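Hi R.,

Here's the chain you asked about this morning:
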Amino acid sequence: MQKFIVSLFAVMTFVAGSQAGPVEATSKEVQQSTYQPTQDWYRDREWNIDLFGAYAFTGEPYRTDRYLDADHAWGGGIDANYMFSRYLGVGVEGFLLDPNDVVGQASANLIFRYPIPNTRIAPYAYAGGGAIFNGSRVEDLVDRGGDFRHNGDTEGMGQFGAGFEVRVTPHIGIINDFSWNVVNGDHNNFGMVRSGLRFAF
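And the predicted structure, written out as tokens:
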């Protein structure tokens, strides 16, 4: 009799287990299975096209500045960059400023970028050089009794700067940075603040 009861209990346990259906997953297990990794905002290789507004200010008061001939100037420009790795890239840039007459610039830069993991933010730094044109130069002509200023000079220049980008989408970002521009001569240097949109492909 005792063996019969034990056998009956074993059979009932087996039948109940076979009809119980699949084991329900806990809420923790469901969350883990539906977890999506953080979107990759910055790719290892990408093209960037920037459209930006700019504000420039001279390192010297305008009376002693020998290129921009103004304390400050507004302008804008465009640049194109190719990031050949997540952290390094090269770019070309051009901008126009309007201190009194339009001054233009063209340069090439080496870019270092560091996308902060699991965020949309990427600080960056850049350095390079090129040419700036249509500025003015002061000559102290004693025989004329004072300074003489003329426009149209083209000078070599170097620049270095740093800033940060915030990606709104994987293909659109907002850039903000500051650069210091070194123009040939002791009194020609100027700083520039840029802000604009970046399109990444």
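The longest strand covers residues 146-169.

Let me know if you need anything else.
M.
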